[in-house]
């Protein structure tokens, strides 16, 4: 983890550093966890595709899984292994389950459903 300062001198804690896209984060109700979506390219072909798109300031949103970590960035763990695009994660009251949108079980392009 690394602290960086912006122009206003506010301090930020970098929570992730893996190759890939991280976004759509939200806090648990008790403020101890963060859930977010991420792509994690691993094969040479996936990495090449990711880096090429990134050179155009783009990411491919079709393969996103959900991850949970402590608010300090520790104890990162992947919580979905569904394939497809898993989006908009948020903790349900009680912080035991996560509500999210996904197209993993759909044969229709652009069709998303909610899961918990």
UniProtKB/TrEMBL annotation:
Name of protein: Uncharacterized protein
One family name in Pfam for this protein: PD40
InterPro entries hit by this protein: 6-blade_b-propeller_TolB-like (IPR011042), WD40 (IPR011659)
